[in-house]
Amino acid sequence: MFRCFKNRLKSLTTIFLCVFCLTLIYGCFSNSQTPNSQQTAEASSLLTEPFLQKPTDNSVTVAWFTEFPGEKNTVAYGDNLNQTAEATTIKLSHTREDQKSRVGNQTEDKQIYQKPVPRDIWRHEAEITGLTPGKEIDYQVISKPENSGEAKSKVYQLEPAPQPGKPLKILLSSDHQLKSMTAANLQKAKKTAGNIDAVFMAGDLINISDRASEWFDDNRGGAFFPALQGRANYEIDKNGVKTAYQGGEIIQEAPIFTAIGNHEVMGRRGKSEDLGGEYNDAIPREVAQNLYGKSSLKANSFNTDTYEEIFSLPESKSGGEKYYATTFGDVRLVVLNATNIWRGPSLESDTKGKYREREADFENPEKWGYGQHIFEPIDKDSSQYNWLVEELNSPEFKQAKYKVVMLHHPVHSLGENIVPAYTNPVQTIEKDDRGKIKAIKYEYPLEEDYLIRDIVPLLEANNVQLVFYGHSHLWNRFKSESGINFLESSNVGNSYGASLGDKKRNVPQGYKEKYIEVGNPNGLEAIVPSIKPLTGEDGKPLPYIASKEITVFSILDTGKGTVNSYYFDTTKPESEVVNFDEFTL
């Protein structure tokens, strides 16, 4: 009997040890694969500070993010924060981390994540109503976790949309993408402008839209929200001098209006090993329908779901948040959805690029990239075009003092990304005598550029004063005979150069269409900055800034009716910001 008891005790001990070991193993695995398991358990802080959206004449929306749903999420506001607005909460649908994330303890590829893993993030939003134009009030957001305590933001100020006639300073920015100079750029913009009243952001906010850490907490210190909220910590090492930049405390008190760039778009879900592959795997909707049918069309082609969940923007009837118009003080802002997938220019046989398909994929249309295809139609008689015609004829647009159009793709530019033309790719399939495919090519007729052919004539006919865009990561500006100012101010975080002189674009030779190697393919000459241009090696002033060491930002001043552009040399951290250009609307 005693022996039987000993055997039972031994068995129970063995079972206990097995369960204990399995628990430890599961815990380690869980912590390594679930990005916010620890944060959910502790849940003691906000993931972002609050930011402002959708101001109206008597209201504004406050939004923020946490890694816990919260038992109660509120905005306290008014005198002594004595009023409360309850927030509505959603869980982001597709945010993940993967092998290439730089988050938590992962500082190299695949240290923790071996594949894309869901990351739970909640967005909270409350509309503050009954506001008086021109009167600022205090506000603070509060989220209460399920365990105990509460997470609070700092106290900030908000107000509704400004009335016409109020002088405003609006930051014009684009192409942040966690690049090396972005935090420095925003820090200097805030210091230079002082009170920034709004941000107009012309797309490419991040690199991979579904990678959560790029928005919130990339461990290199330059994620999107921290940089725009003064909470970044990005170190630049120049000439042995290390300088850390925190970005600017901007969007807590200045509403941000954004346009969709190519980096806000994700491709087919679940068909790639990592999120970068998924981003690059977008195909046209009509192709997806032919391949997979009508069900799950977005998942099988492309989507902007995460972008649309993160922001609350004005909406149009036909485009929702993807293209819209709004009035902010003296400005009527028209935001277009003009972007296409970016593909490489190489003509090598293993390239799925702008101008060709990969040779190994010739017989498999499911693996084709379909060239540099456009995401949202904007050509004549498209829904977006018809909406734009209606908007340009609206009383709100006609009566505005300043008429500004913002989009991502450049209209006039010295940059690489303006070539090929902004038009649907024309596919040519070449076969040998046996019917076997020997080449799949894509052409882009310059005369069919939708922005130049269809959109610019509309803007000229309706007295638009400023068209603002990004995409090529440089600063340059142009002016048409009708008086439209075209500004590309995207040398924010880095640059890919300007195509002038000896620097030529990567364009195909021997194709039917002509692809412009240098200069602006759409005709206008770039304007030399009016105050203090940079100079080339020959000492002559340059009509652009395209630098990996000098960062540029632009400010629209509605009180003066001017746009001023500034640069800061990151190799000289103690140097002053330089106002190098100004033009009048």
UniProtKB/TrEMBL annotation:
Cleavable signal peptide: 1-32
InterPro entries: Calcineurin-like_PHP (IPR004843), Metallo-depent_PP-like (IPR029052), PAPs-like (IPR039331), PAPs_N (IPR015914), Purple_acid_Pase-like_N (IPR008963)
Keyword field: Signal
SUPFAM superfamilies from the UniProt entry: Metallo-dependent phosphatases, Purple acid phosphatase, N-terminal domain
Keyword rRNA-binding on entry: no
Pfam families to which the protein is assigned, alphabetical: Metallophos, Pur_ac_phosph_N
Domain of life: Bacteria
Boundaries of every Purple acid phosphatase N-terminal domain copy: 54-157
Molecular-function GO term, any one: acid phosphatase activity
Domain Calcineurin-like phosphoesterase: 169-473
Protein name: Metallophosphoesterase
Organism: Calothrix parasitica NIES-267
